[in-house]
Design a protein that fits this description.
Elements (H helix, E strand, L loop, with lengths): L4 H20 L11 H6 L6 H12 L2 H14 L6 H26 L4 H9 L2 H32 L6 H22 L2 H29 L2 H7 L2 H4 L10 H17 L3 H8 L4 H10 L1 H20 L8 H7 L4 H9 L2 H39 L5 H25 L2 H15 L3 H4 L10 H21 L5 E6 L2 E6 H22 L16
Antiparallel strand pairs: 1-2
Helix pairs in contact: 1-8, 1-9, 1-18, 3-9, 3-13, 3-14, 3-18, 4-15, 4-18, 5-12, 5-14, 5-15, 6-7, 7-8, 7-18, 7-19, 7-20, 8-18, 8-19, 9-15, 9-18, 10-15, 13-18, 15-17, 18-19, 20-22, 22-23
Length: 512
């Protein structure tokens, strides 16, 4: 396919604008960027509106815009599990995360592992939480770069060889530079532009394309019936029903345990900002439902059967469904605008993820184990360098390995990060759980989850057999249950044996 010069020029223009915005953000709500709290959390100054854009840009990524419609395009109704999971997650955020913000503000915590260290007085448990966050985040960053890679290829730029890698390398350099310079302020500023562009793109597609195709009745009529509903379960199994339900539940519980979402929460100016955002963020759930619908619209448009797109579907599978739909239905200038929205949608979360991972490394590994007496300036400088290393690692991963490996690792990331829930979330309410029981429960969840995923070839669901009933379900949920059982049983045993508990540096008043 020849280079689409109009789309490419529009894409580059918007990319250039947000690059300028990223560097200019260093002077926005100015603070001392030689302090980790200022660089990594923007000084905790963001109000309701900025936090709404930041969390929206953080949670609803470029890969969301590509992968959710791709799942609807390829697998049908199962893709819509993303809608109930984002409905479940916000009441969870409303109840839980103002408590985390309050205790973090009181004690100067920057990461979830900081809180665990203070609450349980166990550096090894905090290390487990920090390493889990870093490892779970890395493939997430790689998938954002995959989203950029797909839209670059869709504009007709060769996607193989050094020339094909060059646009991705340039995007990485830009991302690395403004993150290093401006810290969390850069993705917060860019998120405003990104979210507005995504809303405009989705609104245009769900209004204009159905009019061109004859309305939604014809669109749903063109979708194979087996993709419109979940298939009925076979005898003795809960089938897709339990898979759908556990995917929604597990994804909701895991989402705000990721370091990048916790970073967004802790950058808020008050606990009330978090509560307001928990009430306002469901607007993105509505958007997500429309994004998922793009997969069905792509089916109705028949883009999968068009000869000019077959090489791209062969390379990127169903992930090319949205780019193909845009190319087929819109003029080149709007394609450039929409692709820029996707590309910018990759920059925002990738920046926040790299900052969050570097915060964890600096606070909970470097300072804890290697240089306890480091100065605040050394701490911030270490975080800046690690943010570059994290992004460079994600770039090498994308360029050197198949994107399928990033997808596998991102699946494992969800399974791994949910194992921190007992220490982080339950720790906000009770100190009864023993720190060593939590660490052993975490290890049981990590090992069993990795084994389950490998045994089903890194599919999301594992068929759990209970008596004569088979219940396929999201691996993260099954392993979290195991983690909780191990933690509670061992806590009871350790308590009965009179095991001592380290000092808890927090007090009940710190959480309100």
């Amino acid at each position: 396919m020849p280079i689409n010069w109009v789309a490419l020029i529009v894409f580059v223009a918007f990319f250039g604008f947000v690059t300028f915005l990223g560097f200019a953000a260093a002077h926005w709500r100015r603070g001392d960027l030689d302090l980790l709290h200022e660089w990594g959390l923007a000084g905790g100054r963001f109000g309701t509106l900025i936090t709404w854009f930041l969390l929206g840009g953080d949670v609803y990524t470029a890969y969301t815009f590509i992968a959710v419609p791709a799942l609807a395009f390829g697998s049908g109704a199962l893709a819509f599990f993303a809608v109930p999971y984002t409905i479940i997650v916000y009441p969870f955020v409303f109840m839980v995360f103002p408590r985390l913000w309050s205790v973090a503000k009181r004690h100067g915590y920057i990461t979830a592992a900081d809180f665990v260290r203070g609450r349980y007085g166990n550096k090894w448990l905090a290390l487990a939480v920090a390493l889990t966050g870093i490892v779970a985040t890395m493939p997430y960053i790689a998938l954002q770069l995959v989203g950029i890679q797909v839209v670059i290829a869709a504009m007709g730029i060769e996607s193989t060889g050094w020339f094909g890698d060059l646009p991705l390398v340039i995007a990485f350099v830009v991302l690395a530079a403004f993150t290093y310079t401006s810290g969390l302020r850069a993705p917060a500023a860019i998120a405003i532009v990104k979210d507005l562009m995504i809303y405009i793109t989705v609104a245009a597609v769900v209004i204009i394309v159905p009019l061109q195709l004859g309305g939604y009745a014809k669109i749903f009529g063109a979708v194979p019936p087996q993709k419109l509903i979940l298939p009925p379960p076979p005898p003795g199994s809960l089938g897709a029903y339990s898979t759908y339900a556990t995917l929604a539940l597990g994804s909701a519980l895991a989402l705000f345990l990721y370091p990048h979402t916790i970073t967004g929460v802790l950058s808020s100016s008050s606990r009330h900002v978090i509560r307001r955002n928990a009430a306002l963020l469901p607007a993105y759930t509505f958007l997500l439902g429309l994004i998922a619908l793009l997969g069905f619209i792509a089916i109705a448009a028949g883009v999968g059967d068009m000869p000019q797109y077959k090489p791209f579907f062969a390379q990127y599978k169903a992930n090319f469904a949205v780019p193909a739909l845009l190319l087929n239905q819109f003029p080149a200038w709007f394609v450039g605008f929409a692709f820029a929205a996707i590309g910018i949608g990759a920059l925002v979360p990738a920046a926040i993820m790299s900052i969050a991972a570097s915060n964890l490394w600096t606070r909970n590994i470097y300072k804890e184990f290697f240089n306890p007496s480091c100065t605040p300036k050394q701490e911030a400088q270490m975080a800046k360098w690690v943010s570059l290393i994290v992004k460079f690692g994600a770039l090498v991963f994308v360029l050197g390995l198949s994107s399928q490996y990033a997808i596998y690792l991102q699946l494992l990331g969800g399974v791994w990060i949910i194992q921190t829930l007992p220490a982080v979330v339950l720790g906000l309410y009770t100190r009864w759980l023993n720190q060593w029981a939590l660490l052993i429960g975490w290890a049981a969840g990590i090992v069993s989850g990795t084994w389950m995923a490998a045994s089903v070839n890194f599919a999301a669901a594992f068929p759990l057999r209970i008596g004569g009933l088979t219940a396929p379900g999201y691996i993260a949920v099954w392993t979290l249950i195991l983690n909780l059982i191990v933690t509670v049983v061992l806590t009871a045993i350790f308590t009965a044996l009179g095991a001592a508990k380290p000092r808890d540096e927090t007090a009940a008043a710190d959480y309100v």
